[in-house]
Design goal:
Blueprint: H1 26-30, H2 32-35, H3 48-55
């Protein structure tokens, strides 16, 4: 008696976890014109994490 070989489907799962704890996040940078408060993250450019998200 010969055992049957089971064919299992394959899949690629790609996960990206981005954590931006600097306060220079995309949302704050997008609101810079309407909420520019001196000394806050609203006046900063997006962080490297926010920029890398577009490339992911």
């Amino acid at each position: 008696m010969q055992a049957k070989s089971a064919v299992s489907p394959s899949a690629t799962l790609r996960v990206g976890l981005f954590f931006d704890g600097t306060g220079n996040n995309r949302s704050n940078s997008d609101l810079a014109d309407s909420a520019a408060i001196s000394g806050t993250s609203y006046a900063n450019a997006p962080s490297n994490i926010a920029l890398l998200l577009d490339l992911y």
